[in-house]
Design brief:
The protein is of the alpha+beta class. Helix content is 45%, strand content 17%. Strands 13, 15, 16, 18, 21 and 23 form a 6-stranded antiparallel sheet that branches. A 5-stranded antiparallel sheet has the order 14-17-22-19-20, with no helix packed on it. It has a 5-stranded antiparallel sheet with strand order 24-25-31-27-28, with no helix packed on it. A hairpin with a 6-residue loop joins strand 2 and strand 3. Helix 12 runs antiparallel to helix 27.
Length: 977
Amino acid sequence: MQKNSTPVTKSWKERLEAMYFWEILAFVIPFLLMGYAFKKIEIHPFGDRQILVTDAWHQYYPFFQLLFEKLKNGESLLYSFRTGIGTNFLSLMAYYAASPLNFLSVFMKQENLRDGLTVILLLKFSFAGFFMAKCVKYLFGKNDISVTMFGVMYALCSYMMGYYWNIIWIDTVALLPLVMTGLAMLVREGKYRLYVLSLALALYTNYYIAYFICIYTVLAFFCLCLYENLNFKKFIKRFGMITGCSLLGAGISAWILLPTFFALQLTYSANNKFPTSIKFYEKWRDLIANMMAYTEPTTKTGLPNLYCGLLPVLLLGAFLIAKKIRIREKITAVLLLVFLILSCNINYLNFIWHGFHFTNMIPYRFSFLFSFTMLIMAYRAYQVLLEEKLSLWQWGAMLVTGGIFCGISYTSGVQEDDGHKFVTSCIYLGAVYLIVIFCRKFAPKQIIQTLLACVIAFEMSGQAIRGADTVGSSGYGSYPADNADMQTLIAQQDDSDLFHRSEITMWYTLNDPSLYYYNGISQFSSMANEDISIFCRKMALPASEGSNRYFYANTAPLTHMMLDVRYVLAKDGYSSDTFSMHKVANTDKCAMFENDYILGLGFMMPETMADYELPDQDDPFQTQNELFKKLTGVNEDLYTQIDITHVGHHGFDVTRKAYGFYNYTKQDDASEYYLKYNYTTVQDGMAYAYAKVKNGDNMEVRVDNGDLIHKYSIGRQPYITPLGSYPAGTLINLKCTMKDEAKSGDVNIYFYQMNEDVWKKGYEAIQNGGLTLTEFSDTKINGTVNSEKDGILYLSIPYEKGWSVWVDGQKADLLTMFGAMSGVRVTAGSHEIALKYSPRGFVPGIMIGICCITILVLLYFYEKKHPQNEETETPEEDTPQTETSETAAVTDAFITTENPDTPETVPEAEENPETPAQAMTESQRIQEQDQDIFDFIDSYYESKKAPAPENPDTLEDVEYTPEKFMSDSSQDEENHE
């Protein structure tokens, strides 16, 4: 007889599983659903809207574009002068732009960059679904449509819907299931590479969200060890492994983590203090209500985003009563879930979770961990329901759970204005789920899963639309405003000096230098240097260290000189500074002005300035007067104080406390509300004002109560602004329009005129001895300075230990000037100056990363050369096993049963403690059980001297008995003959 060599044809189901079909489907569906939701709200190219709102408008896109420009131009990723006067860009990127998907921008055109960012965001949703499907597949040994269902629910949970505008967080949220898969592989099988690499990627992508994952990993490790019932010896071994692997993962990312750690020490958030008393944030019933469907996600302030689908809420009841789910599973899962929801509501825990810091809006940033835990618990219950004949007790538990949650939600304050329509909608949706699940009593599980998948797709599509609508959008065509004009003017700037700064008279975003791509001053970021914020505030620029921002507004000549601002661009074509600026270029709408009094990136100061600190006082003109005298040696005031002539308030009662300091109280029956201060100039020349008005909106400038000259915003931080040049005796009116919420408050308003002759005298005293640049890049600066006497070369570069300076080839000490800027001592004569930058911790981080990667590679080759099968250790049991039949092993709760009516043959888990086989991973157990069957087949054929099938892996899932094999063998022999 000849051996039958005809290959066995795989079924369509097996071919799909081999192609990772269900994981790919979990990747595609979130992309399509969110793409459809964006289409509904007319996101470009389906309309004239874009996804940029709030911080995505002010921060994320400008920094994304800055990264794009650096990649396109081949510039250093270590430092940038196109944000914040000069900033450690590596640490900025670690929080805002480190996503690997961002590097796809190199294939985009500038005009399509915002559309590219939208596609990148959609891909992040896709990867969240994909990794969740992979996680569920590994944890539970499933490879069917159910892994797609739960992947989609994670990708479109309310956390993702409410916070997706925080584009920078979504990568790491998507990576959580991958990290947990690696953790499970480490605990179960001792395989560690996926955990190390996924943790390293999470830390690199966004260290802030990865911090949450690290805490969760510790909790999940102990839960997994209890679930797997590890004995003490194996637990110690696994504990050592996870400790070492966590260090390896962090070490691989040390090149970006260490510089970021040192940069964080310079931020305002480093000064947060632990709360002194316990506090609960929300009502418990409101938290529970926010787990239900049809609730709007929190986008800025509100309840934690806990919703991840209504089905997981219903399955919670089945999870708690299912006999197939062991007590230890229930206890560990419930405790973890309770701890996470307590963390959302107790200030102590919330403070720790947020990196020992209280957040500014966007609360409960770790709540995605709750959704992940909920989904894992739900899948465990779902698995039990689908793999056995449905019990009415289980179905009733889901009904009761749904009823309890709906009842609590109805009595809560969530969406109270909608008449609790969301509760009614949840009842209808829950009824559909329960009806479909009830059909499991008489319908095959494949049909039930398909029906559930359809309902979930309906629910999640509604969630996507609701989330996109709640987050909102902004205008596509108007962002960035007047960009073409701005780029035209920037291109006309004289670059012969190798470096200078530019700025815009009134901010558009708070990161305009990154958005329009010029060397500037403004920065709004969580990485903002607190010392620079304080320096800018004292120099009367808009700044707040508590709000992590400092930015530019048209200001005084001394501030321009200290920060090397050579060009000022005006979108409206108007500049009120007619003394120190002159127009050099314009377009139809915009204009560019050049500073007549500029000293460059560095200039000489007296030695006495080394220890000088700027005074912090209410009147910034007095600060500038004092600085000017110290700096130039001219002992005259730069600004002359002008007292108020009269007032013209309307709708407010105002009381004067001192010069420039007032209180106001709103009247009840006025027809119009504003504050008005009138001043008369005492000399020819420039006038300046500083207004700090609580709940103020805009300041209108008029002359002799005539036409509007200029209007500028006072709604953010206060600043000195030029009002224009006027002859003596001119009446200048300052009218403060107020916000609607203005009831009472304080006003600080100061009016001064510049003594122009004093300014020119002081400028002449210090204009010689500036730094002449011969080479400039973001990380390397060379130049020469010729000093008439010993002194300090002041540099308008923020002080940071990453900068090193050399004078005539000899390394020198970099000084801290004014508590924030840089300087170096030089003697009289001509000197060569060289500065180089490397972020503090970058070189050690590179070395640590190389060492960790080397260790990982060496371990790989060692294990490949010396393969070892980890010996399975027998878990410690309280009672002996009571069932040893092969049938019981095959019908374990984790294995799919094709016939739902087959009676149970496995004793309940708590009555039948785990065997070594049960402690293995699902794939290992199935392989061992299949191998037992294959060995029996081989022995049977060997006894009959008949060849075994060539591909036993394709055998159908049937009950194999000697009679069956004999029948098959006889038929096979007949075919061969």
